[in-house]
Each structure stands twice: as structure tokens, then as C-alpha cells.
């Protein structure tokens, strides 16, 4: 596993949590008891806290970013992407799903109900330039 600090903040991994050796966990990330992170998953807590609740799991190739809150017993399926979203207790985000930032997804079957009109990420290129410099200056392996 790759555990990296970011801007002085290290991941907080409970002793009973499982993180695969190919997973990457960066910055402000909390893994509660019995949580699991599977091969090639990325939890990138550099733009907001990420929490993986008790017994929750992030499966192979999935990405959690920007303040993702994954409640107890929830599953983020293979190759799913969760940005700035809350996944409820024992909920399932199926494989190859992208839950965009600032989007309300609800219903059966689930569908996007609303989005914010103006994106605060309009200048994402400039922000990622700043972020890459900050990573280079402050990110260190924790393992």
C-alpha cells in the first residue's frame, strides 16, 4: 500500500482496516474499523476529507476524492468514481459509475436530479497546477 501525507496531514488507518498493497491513500483520509480498500483504488484526501466508515469498502480501481463520505457498510464498486458525495449506510455504488461533484442522484433506478448551476471548478487547470506544486513540496510516503 502507498500511504502519503499531504500538506502535513497523514491518513488515519484503523488497525483492523485492510488496504491492498497496490492501493493509494493520500492526505486527509480516515479508514474506520474493518474498512477495506482493494487493488488499484485511490483515496485522495488533498481537497477535502475522505471518510470510509466501519466495514465500508472501496473496490478495485475505484476513486474517492474531494470530501467523499462513505458510510458504514457501504460499497464503492469496481472502477466507480465518487467526488464530493455522501454514500449512505450499506449503499452500493455499482461498478463503472461516476457520481459527479455537486450532483444529487436519487430514485430507483437512480438518476441525476440536480446539479449546481455554476461550477466552482471552472479554473480547474490553474488549480491543478497549484495542487501539483503543493504535492511536490509537501507529500511524503508514510509507510
What can be said about this structure in brief?
Helix content is 10%, strand content 38%. The chain has 143 residues and is mostly beta strands. Strands 1, 2, 4, 6, 8, 9, 11, 12 and 14 form a nine-stranded parallel beta sheet that branches. Strands 3-5-7-10-13 form a five-stranded parallel beta sheet, with no helix packed on it. Strands 15-16 form a two-stranded antiparallel sheet.
Word description of this protein:
This protein is mostly beta strands and about 140 residues long. The protein has one helix at about 125-140; strands at about 1-5, 10-15, 20, 25-30, 35, 40-50, 55-60, 65, 70, 75, 80-85, 85, 90-95, 100, 105, 110-115. It has one domain: Hexapeptide repeat proteins (UDP N-Acetylglucosamine Acyltransferase, domain 1, 3 Solenoid), CATH 2.160.10. The protein is about 10% helix and about 40% strand. About 30% of the residues are buried.
Question: Helix and strand layout, with pairings?
Answer:
Blueprint: E1 2-4, E2 12-13, E3 18-19, E4 24-31, E5 36-37, E6 42-52, E7 57-58, E8 63-65, E9 69-70, E10 75-76, E11 81-83, E12 86-87, E13 92-93, E14 98-99, E15 103-106, E16 111-115, H1 124-138
Parallel strand pairs: 1-4, 2-4, 3-5, 4-6, 5-7, 6-8, 6-9, 7-10, 8-11, 9-12, 10-13, 11-14
Antiparallel strand pairs: 15-16
Amino acid at each position: 500500500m502507498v500511504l502519503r501525507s499531504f500538506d502535513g496531514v497523514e491518513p488515519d488507518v484503523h488497525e483492523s482496516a485492510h488496504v491492498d498493497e497496490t492501493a493509494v491513500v493520500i492526505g486527509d483520509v480516515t479508514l474506520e474499523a474493518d474498512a477495506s480498500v482493494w487493488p488499484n483504488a485511490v483515496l485522495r484526501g488533498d481537497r477535502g476529507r475522505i471518510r470510509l466508515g466501519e466495514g465500508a469498502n472501496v473496490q478495485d480501481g475505484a476513486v474517492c476524492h474531494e470530501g467523499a463520505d462513505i458510510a458504514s457498510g457501504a460499497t464503492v464498486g469496481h472502477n466507480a468514481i465518487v467526488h464530493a458525495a455522501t454514500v449512505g449506510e450499506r449503499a452500493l455504488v455499482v461498478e463503472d459509475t461516476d457520481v459527479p461533484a455537486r450532483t444529487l442522484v436519487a430514485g430507483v433506478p437512480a438518476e441525476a436530479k440536480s446539479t449546481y448551476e455554476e461550477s466552482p471548478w471552472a479554473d480547474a487547470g490553474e488549480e491543478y497546477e497549484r495542487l501539483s506544486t503543493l504535492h511536490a513540496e509537501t507529500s511524503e510516503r508514510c509507510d
